[in-house]
Amino acid sequence: MPLTKPNQELRRDPQGLASDLKWSAVELMRIAVRLSEAGNEHDAQAVIRICQVMQAGEDRLAGYGEEVKAGRIKRS
Protein backbone atom coordinates (compact mmCIF):
# COMPACT_ATOMS: atom_id res chain seq x y z
CA MET A 1 0.00 0.00 0.00
CA PRO A 2 1.40 3.44 -0.88
CA LEU A 3 2.29 5.80 1.93
CA THR A 4 -0.05 8.65 2.80
CA LYS A 5 1.29 12.17 2.30
CA PRO A 6 1.97 12.67 6.05
CA ASN A 7 3.81 9.34 6.16
CA GLN A 8 5.78 10.22 3.02
CA GLU A 9 6.93 13.37 4.80
CA LEU A 10 7.68 11.35 7.93
CA ARG A 11 9.89 9.06 5.86
CA ARG A 12 11.63 11.88 3.99
CA ASP A 13 12.52 13.84 7.12
CA PRO A 14 14.79 11.18 8.68
CA GLN A 15 16.23 10.34 5.26
CA GLY A 16 17.11 13.99 4.69
CA LEU A 17 18.67 14.29 8.12
CA ALA A 18 20.64 11.08 7.55
CA SER A 19 21.93 12.49 4.29
CA ASP A 20 22.97 15.72 6.02
CA LEU A 21 24.79 13.74 8.72
CA LYS A 22 26.59 11.69 6.08
CA TRP A 23 27.72 14.79 4.19
CA SER A 24 28.88 16.42 7.44
CA ALA A 25 30.79 13.31 8.48
CA VAL A 26 32.54 13.16 5.10
CA GLU A 27 33.62 16.78 5.48
CA LEU A 28 34.79 16.15 9.04
CA MET A 29 36.83 13.16 7.86
CA ARG A 30 38.59 15.44 5.38
CA ILE A 31 39.37 17.79 8.25
CA ALA A 32 40.64 14.86 10.33
CA VAL A 33 43.01 13.88 7.53
CA ARG A 34 44.38 17.41 7.33
CA LEU A 35 44.79 17.51 11.11
CA SER A 36 46.67 14.23 11.03
CA GLU A 37 48.89 15.37 8.16
CA ALA A 38 49.68 18.52 10.15
CA GLY A 39 50.83 16.37 13.06
CA ASN A 40 47.80 16.95 15.24
CA GLU A 41 46.89 13.30 15.70
CA HIS A 42 45.07 13.80 19.00
CA ASP A 43 42.56 16.23 17.47
CA ALA A 44 42.29 14.10 14.32
CA GLN A 45 41.28 11.10 16.44
CA ALA A 46 38.71 13.22 18.30
CA VAL A 47 37.15 14.29 15.00
CA ILE A 48 37.09 10.67 13.82
CA ARG A 49 35.21 9.68 16.99
CA ILE A 50 32.68 12.42 16.27
CA CYS A 51 32.27 10.99 12.75
CA GLN A 52 31.61 7.55 14.19
CA VAL A 53 28.85 8.94 16.40
CA MET A 54 27.37 10.73 13.40
CA GLN A 55 27.49 7.49 11.37
CA ALA A 56 25.55 5.67 14.10
CA GLY A 57 22.95 8.45 14.08
CA GLU A 58 22.75 8.30 10.30
CA ASP A 59 22.13 4.56 10.45
CA ARG A 60 19.37 4.99 13.06
CA LEU A 61 17.65 7.70 11.03
CA ALA A 62 17.81 5.60 7.87
CA GLY A 63 16.31 2.71 9.85
CA TYR A 64 13.43 4.91 10.99
CA GLY A 65 12.73 5.82 7.38
CA GLU A 66 12.61 2.14 6.48
CA GLU A 67 10.23 1.46 9.39
CA VAL A 68 7.91 4.16 8.05
CA LYS A 69 8.10 2.60 4.59
CA ALA A 70 7.24 -0.82 6.06
CA GLY A 71 4.28 0.68 7.93
CA ARG A 72 5.66 0.07 11.44
CA ILE A 73 5.78 3.82 12.17
CA LYS A 74 2.86 5.99 11.08
CA ARG A 75 1.83 9.60 11.40
CA SER A 76 -1.85 10.03 12.16
If you had to describe this structure to a student in words, what would you say it looks like?
The chain has 76 residues and is mostly helical. It has one domain. It is built from 2 helices and no strands. Helix 1 runs antiparallel to helix 2. The longest helix is centred in the first third of the chain and has 33 residues. The mean pLDDT is 93.
Give a brief description:
The chain has 76 residues and is mainly alpha-helical. The chain has two helices and no strands. It has one domain.
Give a topology summary.
Blueprint: H1 5-37, H2 41-70
Structural key phrases:
single chain; 76 residues; mainly alpha; rod-shaped; Prophage PssSM-02
Low-confidence stretches: none
- What shape does the CA trace take? rod-shaped
* Percentage of residues assigned to helices: over 70%
DSSP strand tally: 0
The radius of gyration computed from the alpha-carbon positions, rounded to a whole number of angstroms, is 17 Å
Number of helices: 2
Topology order in helix (H) and strand (E) letters: HH
The proportion of strand residues reads under 5%
Main sheet overview? none
Mean pLDDT: 93
- The number of domains is 1
Structural class: mainly alpha
Distance between the termini: 16 Å
